[in-house]
Design brief:
about 90% helix; single chain; mainly alpha
């Protein structure tokens, strides 16, 4: 988040020719935050051995991203591509949270204990 605060003054002082890219940078910082959350969620699915679920989610994300990039870059150029990345990561987060809630509800346990219980139960 320091990038959000410091980016504009740093760009103005050191790289004024890139100042027009500041809005794109802000959007990509937000996309990076969502991407970081998605990596943590993906590791939960991987720890549960749910590789096919992650593969399906990745396929959906690819389709969403292609559609968003095609439509948004035509109208908004680089800003549209950044928006497509942010929206794709948002969809990815929503899908993973929904799947995780569905899986944990089926096991009737919260996420951390659900992961621990499923890993120990399958070894017994």
């Amino acid at each position: 988040m320091a990038v959000l605060v410091a980016a504009r003054p740093l760009l103005q002082h050191f790289f004024p020719m890139y100042l027009q890219a500041y809005p794109i940078l802000l959007i990509l910082v937000l996309a990076l935050v969502a991407r970081s959350a998605n990596m943590g969620l993906t590791s939960i699915f991987n720890s549960r051995g749910m590789y096919s679920t992650i593969t399906r989610i990745a396929a959906i994300n690819l389709c969403v991203n292609l559609i968003l990039v095609l439509f948004l870059t035509i109208k908004y150029a680089a800003l549209g591509a950044a928006l497509a990345a942010l929206l794709t990561e948002g969809v990815n987060t929503a899908i993973q949270l929904w799947c995780l809630a569905h899986v944990t509800q089926a096991h009737n346990s919260p996420v951390p204990m659900g992961v621990v219980n499923s890993l120990t139960a399958n070894r017994g």
